[in-house]
Amino acid sequence: MCGIVGYTGKGDREAAPILLQALARLEYRGYDSAGLAMGNGHGLVTRKLAGRVAALRELVDRLPVQGASGIAHTRWATHGAPTERNAHPHTDCQGRIAVVHNGIIENAEALRAALVHAGHTFGSDTDTETLAHLIEDAAGDTLETRVIAALEHVVGTYGIAVISGDEPGKIVVARQGSPVLVGVGEREYFVASDASAILEHTRSVVYLNDGDIAVLTPDGYQVLDRSAAVQERAVDALAWDLEAIELGGHAHFMLKEILEQPDTVRSTLRGRLQGDGTVARLNGLNLSAADCEAIRRITIVACGTSWHSGLVGRQIIEELAGIPVHVEYASEYRYRRQPRQSGGTGATLTIAISQSGETADTLEAMRAARGNGSRVVGIVNVVGSTIAREADGGIYLHAGPEIGVASTKAFTSQLVALALLGGYLGAQRGHAPDLAQELVCALTRLPDLVAETLEVEPEVQAIAEQWAESRHALYLGRGLNFPVALEGALKLKEISYIHAEGYPAAEMKHGPIALIDAEMPVVFVAPHDHVYDKVVSNMHEVRARGGRILAITTQGNGDLSRLVDHQLRVPKIMPLLSPVLTVIPLQLLAYHVAVLRGCDVDRPRNLAKSVTVE
Ligand code: G6P
Predict the structure, then answer these.
(1) Of these residues, 2, 292, 303, 599, which one is catalytic?
(2) Global pTM?
(3) Is the pLDDT of residue 147 over 90?
């Protein structure tokens, strides 16, 4: 949610092209306005507008800015409409200080009133601008001491980068609740909301902690605490390939990421299955056999697509490990007053699922769970992210960077990670050994079955052509495939703006059936399992009311052509893993419908990939 970048170097390279390219890589975090600010030796120059990074690039081509350091921003509006005046960077009254910000200043109204009273003039409606004016007034000899002093007045979350016309080449960075890291290059230093923005320049990064202040100059960097004492922070090496953040000939990141799933599933499994048919020790979890034995209940907290994977995970873990699991929206969990868990720290395990590892609500839910006496583990894709660092342990997805705003490959890898976790916990507790053996065998075949499932794409494309004009759609499933129905509906509404609802198939009779007519496409997620026949009965009920049906079933299932308009078959697999396959046609359907409707698939309106504000 909002992307910030910064660059400072010795003058070997111009900053503007580096900032613009890094900003384009962060556009998935927000794309309603963009801007940059640079020092030109006399003062600061800013360029900003409402619109995309590409438009900012054109503006900078027309009105070039020169210099070897600067900051830039791509915005997802919170306070103030997405207009040029609200685009970052924001400056103080003199135009000597410029700030880019990701997060929310919660006491902005009060600060603004006080600053206006003191004679400051505001040029935007944003919360961010208060920071520039606070720094303008703050006491201190250096930009960093003034930033530290200014932040004492601030309540809220922020990742900020600040420059001053009086200290050319210096960038001051501060972090409180919003991700920001420092990139360490040769004779040059970077700031970014996430590592993908600077991957082509350096693989050495310093992840900042809440409370950290970083000071970058062309000669080096330092991390300080709020009393300006120097802090030691490790330099981590990035493992991602540059290829992973390039389109590589695909029209959209979403399609690229859907098609990558055989590899990403393989990557999540790598080194985690053993020849004897068991799940390998998941070392990163930091759970001993005694710890696994002591768990009495599990709570999963997550948002969006990750919440859907949690719903599948509940059933997987309950069956494989015999532990009761609750799944909660992180945003609800964090504000609910809860009775303190009985049984001591080890009795409750909280699992935070998050692709980005930065979702504000999931992070806070995880912290709340810990405060309530729970051990917490993360299922996270982004290495070094805040959730990954704060959890007591966890499982990395290793799915590579996910850039498309609509999550696809992270979902299937999350399901695989949850299956591994279920199998591992079950083995430690001696629960359902035969099922675990079957699971490991099925997981071994899974990447190839994902590849086979992707072969439905031409059929899906043909269906998309018939359905692209729909105004509504209903997605139905049961058991493990009810969350897949939710996920299919979410994918469609996110990127094609067609209203879509996911529902448990049997619940349809308690409401959604009233919506069914010849205009209403209904997707049934009905692989072969113990409720298949029941779901076929639900198809009859829809058919009897003239609804149009797409059924996702399993190869070898009976021919439903008299009952449904379209039938897509996925390969046979044990029911616990069927969601990994059944979701794929739904991802492809949403993608092709959105493309046919002319939607901007990778940048759907109003959405951002990484929701770092609550
Ligand atoms: C946003 C994204 C979704 C994602 C959700 C949770 O809404 O658009 O794709 O599922 O956040 O994100 P997380 O990174 O925590 O999985």
Answers:
(1) 2
(2) 0.88
(3) yes
